[in-house]
């Protein structure tokens, strides 16, 4: 397939691009290269014969139409978004423009292209979204594909709006769409301001490891390579008009997650005395911090035969090792203006 992947220089998009090229697909990577992007994430495939990069902003409809006309993709995987919950609280405007208006532009450019191409049956518009659109859970229960939407942050509200637009374009115009809503990703190439890298990098620097509130917020942790694998399955085999929840089957509180990372670091790079966990520092909670997210992945497991390949402990082991082995990658990003050691513990943690 020829896949048009938006946001392919970001964390999840780059995993999709790398896996798609490895699987023999052609990929057009469309990305505006915002602060969150890093072309080094796709350096390993940049010279592959089936790979092309287009720097374009999804807020620019004409630029999108030109990319569709030039590359004639078989399917779209739309991941480009503003993704950091804390940034959405500080400045929601970019989230509205990119996540809502940008998705509207993508839908309209895709619809124009699809009509002009004679409405090919195999065409798919795959929208990648978050479990945060469902709101917050108590101690029990899980999000299913029919859970009512109840977004609570500017980020999740913008993603909920974009999900609604995608469904509306399917109902109103017949655009062939599939949607996925996933839980918290972690893994290699995760931007340094998100929770897992913040913990690893602060620990290595001997700095306090910040945890919001009392660390009891629970998330379901999904290894990014497993997520990319699921996304490539859905774009090829998912039923049209259908939504699939993708989870890691690995619920952990933030405190448990941080303690696991510290224990892995204690093994891999022991301190002269004490544990990295001694650096854990509880900080004032994020406003409106959702208590618990959990995904029921029954549909994707039963209909498409997908399951995560690793536990969170196995995935974190690989992730910590990757950060130990790839210091130049994260140091270069940390040196960029505006990237600190802020936390991100929403879906886009
Ligand atoms: P990311 O922030 O790492 O990457 C986003 C990419 O989109 C960047 O490369 C950026 O340059 C690009 N982008 C941003 N604005 C753009 C614009 N206006 N035009 C073109 N490109 C633009 O994000 P991520 O963590 O890889 O998330 C990818 C997608 O998955 C997002 O839609 C996000 O909402 C969704 N998601 C992420 C998680 C998670 O845990 N990270 C969980 C659920 C859903």
UniProtKB/TrEMBL annotation:
Cross-referenced InterPro entries: dTDP_Gluc_deHydtase, NAD(P)-bd_dom, NAD(P)-bd_dom_sf, SDR_fam
EC assignment: 4.2.1.46
Alphabetical UniProt keywords: Lyase, NAD
Catalytic activity, as annotated: dTDP-alpha-D-glucose = dTDP-4-dehydro-6-deoxy-alpha-D-glucose + H2O
Single GO molecular function: dTDP-glucose 4,6-dehydratase activity
Entry-linked SUPFAM superfamilies: NAD(P)-binding Rossmann-fold domains
Record keyword NAD present: yes
Record domain NAD(P)-binding: where: 4-319
Chloroplast is among the record's keywords: no
Cofactor: NAD(+)
Top-level division of the source organism's lineage: Bacteria
One Pfam match: GDP_Man_Dehyd
Gene3D superfamilies: NAD(P)-binding Rossmann-like Domain, UDP-galactose 4-epimerase, domain 1
Transmembrane parts of this sequence: none
GO BP, sorted A to Z: nucleotide-sugar metabolic process
Family: Belongs to the NAD(P)-dependent epimerase/dehydratase family. dTDP-glucose dehydratase subfamily.
Protein name: dTDP-glucose 4,6-dehydratase
Gene name as annotated: rffG
């Amino acid at each position: 397939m020829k896949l048009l992947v938006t946001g392919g220089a970001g964390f999840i998009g780059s995993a999709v691009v790398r896996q798609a090229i490895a699987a023999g697909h052609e990929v057009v990577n469309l990305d505006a290269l915002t602060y969150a992007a890093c072309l080094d994430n796709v350096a390993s495939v940049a010279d592959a014969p089936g790979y092309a990069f287009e720097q374009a902003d999804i807020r620019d409809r004409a630029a999108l139409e030109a990319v569709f006309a030039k590359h004639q993709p078989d399917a779209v995987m739309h991941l480009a978004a503003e993704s950091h919950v804390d940034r959405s609280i500080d400045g929601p405007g970019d989230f509205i423009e990119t996540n809502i208006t940008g998705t509207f532009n993508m839908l309209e450019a895709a619809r124009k292209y699809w009509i002009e191409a004679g409405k090919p049956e195999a065409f798919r518009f795959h929208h990648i979204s978050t479990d945060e659109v469902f709101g917050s859970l108590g101690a029990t229960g899980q999000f299913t594909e029919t859970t009512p939407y109840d977004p609570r942050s500017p980020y999740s509200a913008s993603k909920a709006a974009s999900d609604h637009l995608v469904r509306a374009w399917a109902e109103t115009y017949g655009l062939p769409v599939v949607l996925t809503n996933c839980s918290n990703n972690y893994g290699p190439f995760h931007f340094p301001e998100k929770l897992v890298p913040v913990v690893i990098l602060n620990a290595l620097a001997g700095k306090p490891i910040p945890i919001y509130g009392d660390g009891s917020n629970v998330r379901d942790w999904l290894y990014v390579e497993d997520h990319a694998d699921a996304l490539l399955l859905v774009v090829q085999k998912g039923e049209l008009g259908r939504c699939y929840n993708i989870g890691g089957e690995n619920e952990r509180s933030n405190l448990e997650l941080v303690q696991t990372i510290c224990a892995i670091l204690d093994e891999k790079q022991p301190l002269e005395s004490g544990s990295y966990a001694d650096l854990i520092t509880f900080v004032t909670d994020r406003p409106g911090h959702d208590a618990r997210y959990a995904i029921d992945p029954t549909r994707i497991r039963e209909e498409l035969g997908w399951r995560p390949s690793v536990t969170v402990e196995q995935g974190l082991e690989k992730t910590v090792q990757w950060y130990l082995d790839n210091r130049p990658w994260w140091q270069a990003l940390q040196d960029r203006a505006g990237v600190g050691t802020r936390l991100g513990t929403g879906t886009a943690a």
